[in-house]
Every structure is written in structure tokens, then in C-alpha cells.
């Protein structure tokens, strides 16, 4: 388990800063690349219905991959130190997200469930959903995304522990390739008390699956 966590930490540390725009192609270059892909798919980028498509696709990419220009540090910067006697799990479940796998650049779509045990403070609940999007809106694997979310909350909040469950359907498995629709992939990451104490993991899973 430690080896896996360390792998992800190393992976995260060695990534080029996502905000670094050096070497980024121009908008015109990106639009030309879309025209090439349209031709590769077998259509004519000069026909009426497709004329504005490269522009739209590039604009959509700005939105779908906005995570490269977002920072978990900014999202999690505001910690409320006052917990006023609360010392149990905070769980925010069913956070919807959509991401793109780094293998095919095809969407994977699902939900994240995030819990932490506060120690020195809590964050606004929306920040947990925002931190999901920081990482979801980049190219990656579900495993990496799960680890990155857990590590970010661990690093910035310094809680007694973090537990994350991510469940998603990968369109690269349903729309192409093996063509198995409706398959769920579940990934988890536990730190601190959740990693050390299996009963806390069970409690987390029970709360995630519990009363609706
Ligand atoms: N572990 C992991 N695998 C993923 C994820 N997203 C996609 N994949 C897998 O990435 C693999 C890529 O396999 P390759 O053999 O290199 O590519 P491929 O020929 O397109 O594979 P097929 O999807 O089996 O057709 C596939 O097995 C995908 O199911 C992810 O988030 N995590
Ligand atoms: Zn894929």
C-alpha cells in the first residue's frame, strides 16, 4: 500500500506544473489539429456544418481541461480553524464529476465520495467538490485522480485521516474497444486513521452506502 501511495506522490511531484503555459500551442494550431482529426474521421472540415466546429472544440477543451489552470492550493487555502466541538467524520458523498482518461482522451463519468476526520479545522463543503474538478479536468487515470484528491486534502487540511471512494464508467470501455457498457470501476484511497483502522474504513463505506 505504501509503495502505491509513494508511486502516486512521486508521480505528482514530477509532473510539470500544470499552470506552466510554456510550449502551449496557439489557438490557431489547436483549431488546425481539429480540422486534421475531422479529415482523419472521414469528413470535410470545409463543409458548412463543420466550419465553426474547430473553434467550438477548442473552446470546449478550455472548459473540459480547465484543471490545468486550476490549483488545489487555492481551492483549499481557506480553512476554518473553529470546529466548535465537532470531532467526527465529515463525509460529502455523490459528488458528480466527468474526466477524460489519458489513454484515449475519452470521458469517464461518475461520483466521488470524500470523507475526512478534522483535526485543526474544516473546509467549506463546496471546496471538496471543487478539488475533485481541479484533478478531474485533466488527462489521467481514475487511480491517479483518486490519489491526487486524497493527497491534496491530506496536505492542505492536515486532518486525522482522509477516505475517498470514486466510482465511474469509462466510455473507452463502453463506446469502443471491449464495448462493455454499464461497468463500474471503484477506486479508494485511505490515509491516517482510515488507513490504520479497518473499522473506520467500514464506517466510511457504510455511510457512503447508507441512508438515502
Ligand atoms: N487502470 C486504468 N486503466 C484505464 C483507465 N482508463 C482507461 N484504462 C485502460 O487503459 C487501457 C489501455 O490499453 P491499451 O492496450 O494500451 O489500449 P487499447 O488497445 O485501446 O485497449 P482496449 O481498451 O482494450 O481496446 C485499457 O485497458 C483501458 O481500459 C483508468 O483510469 N485506469
Ligand atoms: Zn480510456
Automatic annotation (TrEMBL):
Catalytic activity: GTP + H2O = 7,8-dihydroneopterin 3'-triphosphate + formate + H(+)
Cellular component aspect of the GO annotation: cytoplasm
Pathway as given in its UniProt record: Cofactor biosynthesis; 7,8-dihydroneopterin triphosphate biosynthesis; 7,8-dihydroneopterin triphosphate from GTP: step 1/1
GO biological processes: one-carbon metabolic process; tetrahydrobiopterin biosynthetic process; tetrahydrofolate biosynthetic process
Annotated Gene3D superfamilies: 1.10.286.10, 3.30.1130.10
Location of the GTP cyclohydrolase I domain: 31-208
Pfam family, one: GTP_cyclohydroI
Positions annotated to bind Zn(2+): 101, 104, 172
GO molecular function: GTP binding; GTP cyclohydrolase I activity; zinc ion binding
EC numbers, comma separated: 3.5.4.16
Positions with biased composition (Basic and acidic residues): 8-17
InterPro entries: GTP-CH-I_C/QueF, GTP-CH-I_N, GTP_CycHdrlase_I, GTP_CycHdrlase_I_CS, GTP_CycHdrlase_I_dom
Region: Disordered, residue numbers: 1-30
Swiss-Prot/TrEMBL keywords: GTP-binding, Hydrolase, Metal-binding, Nucleotide-binding, One-carbon metabolism, Zinc
PANTHER family (alphabetical): GTP CYCLOHYDROLASE 1, GTP CYCLOHYDROLASE I
Subunit details: Toroid-shaped homodecamer, composed of two pentamers of five dimers.
Recorded family membership: Belongs to the GTP cyclohydrolase I family.
NCBIfam families assigned: folE, PRK09347.1-2, PRK09347.1-3
Protein name: GTP cyclohydrolase 1
Amino acid at each position: 500500500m505504501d509503495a502505491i501511495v509513494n508511486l502516486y506522490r512521486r508521480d505528482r511531484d514530477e509532473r510539470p506544473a500544470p499552470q506552466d503555459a510554456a510550449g502551449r500551442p496557439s489557438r490557431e494550431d489547436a483549431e488546425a489539429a481539429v480540422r486534421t482529426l475531422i479529415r482523419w474521421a472521414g469528413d470535410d472540415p470545409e463543409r458548412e456544418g463543420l466550419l465553426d466546429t474547430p473553434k467550438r472544440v477548442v473552446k470546449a477543451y478550455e472548459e473540459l481541461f480547465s484543471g490545468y489552470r486550476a490549483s488545489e492550493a487555492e481551492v483549499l487555502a481557506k480553512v476554518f480553524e473553529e470546529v466548535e466541538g465537532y470531532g467526527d467524520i465529515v463525509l460529502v458523498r455523490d459528488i458528480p464529476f466527468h474526466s477524460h482518461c489519458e489513454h484515449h482522451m475519452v470521458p469517464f463519468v461518475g461520483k466521488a465520495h470524500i470523507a475526512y476526520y478534522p483535526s485543526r479545522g474544516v473546509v467549506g463543503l463546496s471546496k471538496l467538490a471543487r478539488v475533485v474538478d481541479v484533478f478531474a479536468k485533466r488527462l489521467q487515470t481514475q487511480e491517479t485522480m483518486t490519489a491526487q484528491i486524497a493527497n491534496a486534502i491530506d496536505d492542505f487540511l492536515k486532518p486525522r485521516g482522509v477516505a475517498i471512494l470514486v466510482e465511474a464508467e469509462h466510455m473507452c470501455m463502453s463506446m469502443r474497444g471491449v464495448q462493455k457498457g454499464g461497468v463500474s470501476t471503484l477506486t479508494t484511497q485511505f490515509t491516517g486513521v482510515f488507513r490504520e483502522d479497518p473499522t473506520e474504513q467500514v464506517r466510511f463505506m457504510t455511510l457512503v452506502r447508507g441512508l438515502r
